[in-house]
Amino acid sequence: MGGLRCVDGSYLTVTPVACVDSVGTPYEITLELHRDGTPYGMVGERCGWFLARLARGVAQAREGRGHAALWPDPDDRFPEDEPDSELFSFRYRTRRGAVGGGELRCQLRTIPIWMPGPERGGEWRLTRRAYLEAWGSGGVGMRAVLTSAELESFVGGLVDEAEGCMGGRDLAGNPVEGAGSSERR
Q1: β-sheet with 2-5: strand ranges across
Q2: b/e per residue 90-125 (b: at least 16 CB within 10 A)
Q3: pLDDT tens figures, 19-71
Protein backbone atom coordinates (compact mmCIF):
# COMPACT_ATOMS: atom_id res chain seq x y z
CA MET A 1 0.00 0.00 0.00
CA GLY A 2 1.56 3.26 -1.16
CA GLY A 3 1.01 6.42 0.80
CA LEU A 4 1.88 10.11 0.77
CA ARG A 5 1.72 12.93 3.30
CA CYS A 6 -0.16 15.79 1.63
CA VAL A 7 0.47 19.51 2.02
CA ASP A 8 -2.64 19.91 4.23
CA GLY A 9 -1.28 17.27 6.65
CA SER A 10 -3.69 14.53 5.59
CA TYR A 11 -2.42 11.11 4.47
CA LEU A 12 -3.35 9.64 1.08
CA THR A 13 -3.18 5.86 0.82
CA VAL A 14 -3.26 4.24 -2.64
CA THR A 15 -3.83 0.48 -2.82
CA PRO A 16 -3.79 -1.56 -6.05
CA VAL A 17 -6.77 -3.93 -6.35
CA ALA A 18 -6.75 -6.72 -8.94
CA CYS A 19 -9.36 -6.64 -11.72
CA VAL A 20 -10.46 -10.20 -12.43
CA ASP A 21 -12.08 -11.78 -15.48
CA SER A 22 -15.19 -13.98 -15.48
CA VAL A 23 -13.24 -17.01 -14.16
CA GLY A 24 -11.48 -15.07 -11.41
CA THR A 25 -8.07 -14.62 -13.07
CA PRO A 26 -6.46 -11.21 -12.36
CA TYR A 27 -5.61 -9.32 -15.53
CA GLU A 28 -5.09 -5.67 -14.46
CA ILE A 29 -5.51 -3.31 -11.51
CA THR A 30 -7.64 -0.46 -10.20
CA LEU A 31 -6.48 1.92 -7.46
CA GLU A 32 -8.34 2.30 -4.18
CA LEU A 33 -7.85 5.68 -2.45
CA HIS A 34 -8.14 6.40 1.29
CA ARG A 35 -7.78 9.74 3.06
CA ASP A 36 -6.55 9.32 6.64
CA GLY A 37 -7.87 5.73 6.60
CA THR A 38 -11.36 6.64 5.30
CA PRO A 39 -12.45 5.39 1.83
CA TYR A 40 -11.94 8.21 -0.66
CA GLY A 41 -12.51 6.74 -4.14
CA MET A 42 -11.65 4.13 -6.78
CA VAL A 43 -9.77 5.22 -9.90
CA GLY A 44 -7.69 4.03 -12.83
CA GLU A 45 -9.37 0.94 -14.19
CA ARG A 46 -6.70 -1.09 -15.97
CA CYS A 47 -3.91 1.41 -15.16
CA GLY A 48 -1.19 -1.11 -14.19
CA TRP A 49 0.63 -1.19 -17.53
CA PHE A 50 0.69 2.61 -17.58
CA LEU A 51 2.06 2.83 -14.02
CA ALA A 52 4.79 0.28 -14.85
CA ARG A 53 5.78 2.35 -17.89
CA LEU A 54 5.85 5.55 -15.77
CA ALA A 55 8.00 3.88 -13.08
CA ARG A 56 10.50 2.84 -15.75
CA GLY A 57 10.44 6.35 -17.30
CA VAL A 58 11.09 8.12 -13.98
CA ALA A 59 13.99 5.76 -13.18
CA GLN A 60 15.55 6.42 -16.61
CA ALA A 61 15.07 10.19 -16.28
CA ARG A 62 16.77 10.19 -12.87
CA GLU A 63 19.74 8.45 -14.52
CA GLY A 64 19.95 11.41 -16.91
CA ARG A 65 18.61 9.86 -20.11
CA GLY A 66 17.14 12.04 -22.86
CA HIS A 67 16.00 15.60 -22.14
CA ALA A 68 16.13 14.91 -18.40
CA ALA A 69 19.94 15.25 -18.58
CA LEU A 70 19.47 19.02 -18.98
CA TRP A 71 18.50 19.22 -15.29
CA PRO A 72 21.62 19.07 -13.07
CA ASP A 73 19.74 17.94 -9.94
CA PRO A 74 18.35 14.36 -10.27
CA ASP A 75 15.35 15.41 -8.13
CA ASP A 76 14.29 17.73 -10.99
CA ARG A 77 14.47 14.99 -13.66
CA PHE A 78 11.18 13.60 -14.95
CA PRO A 79 10.36 11.61 -18.10
CA GLU A 80 8.41 14.32 -19.96
CA ASP A 81 10.02 16.88 -22.28
CA GLU A 82 7.40 19.57 -21.69
CA PRO A 83 8.01 21.85 -18.70
CA ASP A 84 4.46 21.62 -17.31
CA SER A 85 2.88 18.40 -18.56
CA GLU A 86 0.58 15.77 -17.13
CA LEU A 87 2.15 12.42 -16.23
CA PHE A 88 -1.21 10.71 -15.62
CA SER A 89 -4.86 11.27 -14.86
CA PHE A 90 -7.00 8.41 -13.55
CA ARG A 91 -10.73 8.69 -12.96
CA TYR A 92 -13.45 6.32 -11.90
CA ARG A 93 -15.72 5.25 -14.75
CA THR A 94 -18.79 3.06 -14.62
CA ARG A 95 -19.35 0.36 -17.26
CA ARG A 96 -21.57 2.84 -19.10
CA GLY A 97 -18.77 5.43 -19.16
CA ALA A 98 -20.13 7.82 -16.52
CA VAL A 99 -17.38 9.57 -14.53
CA GLY A 100 -17.52 9.90 -10.73
CA GLY A 101 -16.12 8.35 -7.56
CA GLY A 102 -12.73 10.04 -7.52
CA GLU A 103 -9.71 11.18 -9.50
CA LEU A 104 -5.94 10.85 -9.16
CA ARG A 105 -3.65 12.92 -11.37
CA CYS A 106 -0.02 13.93 -11.51
CA GLN A 107 1.24 17.05 -13.26
CA LEU A 108 4.76 18.43 -13.62
CA ARG A 109 5.38 22.03 -12.68
CA THR A 110 8.46 24.19 -13.08
CA ILE A 111 9.04 26.44 -10.08
CA PRO A 112 11.49 29.37 -9.89
CA ILE A 113 13.23 29.72 -6.50
CA TRP A 114 15.35 32.70 -5.47
CA MET A 115 18.73 31.56 -4.15
CA PRO A 116 20.43 34.38 -2.19
CA GLY A 117 24.15 34.66 -2.79
CA PRO A 118 27.11 36.83 -1.81
CA GLU A 119 27.57 38.22 -5.32
CA ARG A 120 24.93 40.43 -6.94
CA GLY A 121 22.42 39.38 -4.27
CA GLY A 122 21.64 35.91 -5.64
CA GLU A 123 20.06 34.22 -8.62
CA TRP A 124 16.95 32.38 -9.74
CA ARG A 125 17.06 28.58 -9.86
CA LEU A 126 14.44 26.49 -11.64
CA THR A 127 13.19 23.30 -10.00
CA ARG A 128 10.66 20.74 -11.22
CA ARG A 129 8.18 18.94 -9.01
CA ALA A 130 5.36 16.48 -9.52
CA TYR A 131 2.05 17.66 -8.09
CA LEU A 132 -0.01 14.58 -7.25
CA GLU A 133 -3.63 15.55 -6.66
CA ALA A 134 -6.52 13.38 -5.55
CA TRP A 135 -10.23 14.14 -5.36
CA GLY A 136 -12.74 12.02 -3.51
CA SER A 137 -16.28 11.29 -4.60
CA GLY A 138 -17.42 14.21 -2.41
CA GLY A 139 -15.29 16.71 -4.34
CA VAL A 140 -12.72 17.39 -1.59
CA GLY A 141 -9.15 17.50 -2.92
CA MET A 142 -5.70 16.79 -1.52
CA ARG A 143 -2.22 17.46 -2.93
CA ALA A 144 1.30 16.14 -2.44
CA VAL A 145 4.39 17.79 -3.97
CA LEU A 146 7.08 15.25 -4.96
CA THR A 147 10.65 15.21 -6.19
CA SER A 148 11.44 12.68 -8.91
CA ALA A 149 12.99 10.41 -6.24
CA GLU A 150 9.77 10.50 -4.19
CA LEU A 151 7.65 9.86 -7.30
CA GLU A 152 9.92 6.98 -8.32
CA SER A 153 9.56 5.40 -4.87
CA PHE A 154 5.78 5.90 -4.75
CA VAL A 155 5.01 4.60 -8.25
CA GLY A 156 7.60 1.80 -8.01
CA GLY A 157 6.02 0.64 -4.75
CA LEU A 158 2.56 0.63 -6.36
CA VAL A 159 3.83 -1.45 -9.28
CA ASP A 160 5.54 -3.96 -6.96
CA GLU A 161 2.39 -4.31 -4.85
CA ALA A 162 0.19 -4.60 -7.96
CA GLU A 163 2.35 -7.37 -9.39
CA GLY A 164 2.10 -9.15 -6.03
CA CYS A 165 -1.70 -8.97 -5.93
CA MET A 166 -1.76 -10.33 -9.49
CA GLY A 167 0.23 -13.41 -8.59
CA GLY A 168 3.57 -12.06 -9.80
CA ARG A 169 2.41 -11.12 -13.31
CA ASP A 170 4.65 -8.42 -14.82
CA LEU A 171 2.54 -5.32 -15.50
CA ALA A 172 5.02 -4.00 -18.06
CA GLY A 173 4.28 -6.93 -20.37
CA ASN A 174 1.09 -7.74 -22.20
CA PRO A 175 0.06 -11.38 -22.65
CA VAL A 176 -1.82 -10.65 -25.90
CA GLU A 177 0.56 -11.13 -28.82
CA GLY A 178 1.24 -7.88 -30.65
CA ALA A 179 -0.57 -5.68 -28.10
CA GLY A 180 0.99 -3.12 -25.80
CA SER A 181 4.66 -3.37 -24.95
CA SER A 182 6.77 -6.49 -24.71
CA GLU A 183 9.63 -4.56 -23.11
CA ARG A 184 10.37 -5.62 -19.54
CA ARG A 185 11.65 -3.44 -16.68
Answers
A1: 2-5, 11-20, 26-35, 38-43
A2: bbbeeeeeeeebbbbbbbbeeeeeeeeeeeeeeeee
A3: 888 998 898 999 999 999 999 999 988 899 999 999 999 999 999 998 899 99
Bridge partner list, 162 = none
Chain centre distance of CA 184: 19
The H or E element that residue 5 is part of is strand 2-5
Tell me the DSSP string of 89-115.
EEEEE-TT--EEEEEEEEEEEEEEEEE
DSSP-derived letter for residue 7 is T
**What amino acid is encoded at 90 in this protein?**
F
Structure letter (DSSP) for residue 159: H
The residue type at 166: M
Contacts of 162 (CB under 8 A, 6+ apart): 16, 18, 29, 48, 51, 171
As a residue count, the chain comes to 185
* C-alpha span between 52 and 131 (Å, rounded): 19
Q: Which of 62, 87, 92, 91 is nearest to 76 (CA)?
A: 62
pTM of the model: 0.86
